[in-house]
Amino acid sequence: MRKLDVLVSYLSKLPGIGPKSAERIAYHIAGLPENEINELAAAILSVKEGVYVCRICCNYSETPICSICSDENRDKETICVVKEPQDIAAIERLNIYRGSYHVLGGVLSAKRNKTPQDLYINQLIERIKNNNVKEVILAIDPDVEGEMTMNYLSRLLKDYNLKVSRISIGIPAGGEIEYADNITLTEALSGKKEI
Question: How many domains is the chain partitioned into structurally?
């Protein structure tokens, strides 16, 4: 296999990159000066070497505990549960939510063989048990797998003395939080409903 074909193969595995885009990117990279290619490779390697999974919320961080979890001004009694770290970035851009977060690391999926044991659900339960959590907001994409995950979590969390709510209007069925515009996401968070 040609070197460009190998690069195209790896690039096409990235989310949102199809075969044609992967090919375009690969040829672009091949045309870069060697120093820029080395800088790109170093940047990719540094992400793996210098990024942690936060010990509290499972977000990506450059320290063992992320800046949100270490911020004493955040509301620790409210946890917003999201699918992936990029969902936190989307919500944080709004500058309206001051609680804490918990990243599941995916959703339940029969198609991808993702079970509760494959997600950071046990870590969420431990946080609820060991802290004075009063509300959990489920902010997961409202597609089939997201709905299944939210239903599973809402049943699981009924055993605890806390309010469980989910984001409301704004995010269409099948939509993804990380791609929602600020107004839509603001409406979804503002109109959250108790489950």
Answer: 2
DSSP per residue over the chain, as a string? --HHHHHHHHHTTSTT--HHHHHHHHHHHHTS-HHHHHHHHHHHHHHHHH-EE-TTT--EESSSS-TTTT-TTSEEEEEEEESSHHHHHHHHHHT---EEEEE-SS--BTTTTB-GGGTTHHHHHHHHHHTT--EEEEE---SHHHHHHHHHHHHHHTTSSSEEEE--TTS-TT--GGGS-HHHHHHHHHT-EE-
Question: What is the span of the domain harbouring residue 15?
Answer: 3-50
CATH number of residue 13's parent domain: 1.10.8.420
Question: Domain check: are 91 and 169 in the same one?
Answer: yes
Residues 164 and 88 in one domain: yes
- Provide the residue-wise pLDDT of the chain in tens; the chain has 195 residues: 688 889 999 999 998 899 999 999 999 999 999 999 999 999 888 887 888 999 999 999 999 999 999 999 999 999 999 999 999 999 999 899 999 999 999 999 988 899 999 999 999 999 999 999 999 999 998 888 998 999 999 999 998 999 999 886 555 555 566 656 665 666 566 656 566
